Amino acid sequence: MKMLYLPILAISVAACSSNFVTRPYDPAKDAKEINGIKYYEAAFVRVRYEFTALTDRDGNYLGSSSDSPPACARAVQKEELAVWPDPTNVRVVENKPSAFSSTTFGVTLSNGMLVGVNAQAAPQTATLLGPFLSAAAAFSAKAVPPVAGGPAKICNASPVIASVTPVKSLGSLQAD
User: DSSP secondary structure string, the chain?
Assistant: First the structure.
């Protein structure tokens, strides 16, 4: 008789559990109603910043690369690896409660990316990004070569984002 209680207990525990699932967003299926929260998958991108203005030692503005004629040639300030939302990869997180339980469904979003689902977790950013950051350290700032007949001075102020490139794999992080 005691052996009969074990399967009943297992079924009861399974029936009381809830879970969360994620799936790709399907515009045809989800057009009318979504049974969850829409979010963007995170993606690694390589961001390049370039100086666009020329200043003297005292910080006085002398001109920019967009002047006609240009006062200076753009120079790379830095390149960095960043995590941005991927608008081409939309997903949905759904709560799948059991018939015998009551659950509280909560998510935390940051810039449209899912960063938490009803849980307290220790930050793992440094552990997860470690291999990528060490590869990103291979980047070095370098001046964009001046165009023949262009300005002889290199810009040294007013950095702007010059390019954002998706990173497909660790191999694509090599410096140009």
Answer: -HHHHHHHHHHHHHHT--EEEEEE--HHHHSS--SSEEEEEEEEEEEEEEEEEEE-TT--EEEETTSSS-SSB-EEEEEEEEEEEEEEEEEEEEEE--TT------EEEETTEEEEES------HHHHHHHHHHHHTT----BPPPPTTS-SSBP-EEEEEEEEEE--SGGGGS--
The Cα angle at residue 127 between residues 124 and 128, in degrees rounded to 5: 80
Alpha-carbon distances of 49 from 1, 23, 69, rounded to whole Å: 73, 35, 22
- Evaluate whether 167 touches 46 at the Cβ level (below 8 Å): yes
Task: List beta partners, residue 85.
Answer: 42
Q: Across-strand partners of 19?
A: 96
Q: How confident is the model over 102-116, as pLDDT tens digits?
A: 666 778 888 888 887
Question: Domain coordinates of the chain in residue numbers?
Answer: 20-25+35-173
Would you say residue 75 has pLDDT above 50? yes
